[in-house]
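Is zinc ion placement plausible here? Inputs below.
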Amino acid sequence: MRAVRFPGPQQIENIDIPEPTAPAADEVLVQVRQVGICGSDYGGYLGKMPFFSYPRIWGHELGVEVLVCGSQVTHLKPGDRCSVEPYMNNVDSFASRRGRGNCCNDLQVIGVHRDGGMRERLCLPARKLHVGNALGFEQLALVETLAIGYHAVQRGNPQPGETVVIVGAGPIGLAVWEFVRLAGCRCIMLDVRPDRLEFCQQVLGVPETLAVQPDGSHVAQLAELTSGNLAEVVIDATGNARSMGQALELVSFTGRLVYVGITADTIQFPHPLMHRRELTLLASRNALPGDFGAIINWIAAGQINTQPWITHTSTLDTIAADFPRFLDPQLQVLKAMVAI
Ligand SMILES: [Zn+2]
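Reply from A.M.:
I modeled the complex. Tokens:
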């Protein structure tokens, strides 16, 4: 059957691989229908993603159809449409036993640490599939991206009436925005690029935006917009160490700062800034199983409009040619979907 992999950094190729074997008792064999391309896939292609090893069949944002269920599988049946939770955790690990399999000590993400979904069929643990028969496969493939945002919002736990600032208007920042909106909070989106702010205002209807200024004057502008209080919750989705250090300046006294973007660099900030305001610093990694079902329900109820999210499409046969093109910032790719 057909598959696409990265043989090494800056390389992408179509390959032919053997069909998967029959599913184990607690597994299902699925037909992959749609695969979303994520920032970490672009990073893996470019060789900038530290967790990636090669060669790798990438793809972790999957909309799949169940073909065959293992003998012990009870919550799925052939024909079910599902979203896949791609975080393969060891259920006996310290974090998993505390209900936090999303940051399991031995976590393996499919398409990153082990081969993923850019192929026609594969076997997956049944417990990682979340049914959404009312949704299309593109919508199901989008659920994982949205779940990253949902989990970050839950970590910051904004209350109605509080102001949330999101730093970074990329796909993760916009996923965060969907759930800040649903939480009934005021949301102000920050980015260094005015064209990105314009895009998220026009395409997704983000109401309030603020351009990050090199001289830091956007902090005073935010103070002005918030009666001098700044934001109770700041969620940094940039993955940029400098932005992540400076994000403390945007948080109100007693506020919370969530890092959802990832950097391999050291983050620096003056300690008094954190101490005087008694800030809480949180990390947000991946998402929890329950997040997937909650998001599927919101999409089915029409509370999240997925239509503006999918800006580009490709296929298993054409993605090797399309992939480098999608990296061009001029194209303004929010989410590209690959039909399998
Ligand atoms: Zn992703």
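Short version: The chain has two domains: 2-133+306-339, 149-283.
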